Amino acid sequence: MTQQPDRQPAAEGAGPADAAPPMMAVRDLRRSFGTGANAVHALRGVSFEARRGELTALKGRSGSGKTTLLNLAGGLDTPSGGTVELDGTDLSTLDEDGLLALRRDRIGFVFQSFGLIPVLTAAENVGVPLRMRKVPARQREERVRTLLALVGLAEHAEQRPGELSGGQQQRVALARALANEPALIIADEPTGQLDSETGRSIMRLLRAVVRSEGVTALVATHDPQLMELADRVVELRDGRIVEPAAADR
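Structure tokens predicted for ABC transporter ATP-binding protein (249 residues):
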């Protein structure tokens, strides 16, 4: 049975689309490290769904299982039990080549440390995923221009990461994550190195982009103010989803 996250306000435009299959479905997901008495159970039967155009925030203390869940959702790790489905595809049915193609074509990653290539300009960083897919130059350049404009950095295309503020670098990272028109964006503490106001600005941008691009986002964060901007919040504690109190249901 699917466990319910602790808050599920209706997204803008909610209606018939809610009846559509979820973009991501996590079913009884379990992940253990080690065996026997020394085994560490990072996830203990986690289940939830996320829909297209929806931002789901993961909350929980360090060690609660957030990063493990992100790694499994992104096809970077293999569960001990349960499944992750992305747009109807069960990740456990894919071999290494299939997972590589999935991460390249269907998932965008945003990291706390930005992960930009220092010697490349903002435009070149955004274009890296498109080069990997051998997208023709003219099409690639048009997509890069569109994305930099989307995140408000059209005038900074030729600047390198070291010439940009932290918030601007994270905007470049978000544009890069969107380059291949992914189904899912995974962000691990994307505002962790930013001041509170810049972090809130990045989260507002991420939410707006998720809705405008029709992408699903799974974001791990510690900041309660940022959780307020999510469409739903999934709280983890000791590898399990925390059920909402009866008064909150």
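The longest helix spans residues 196-213.
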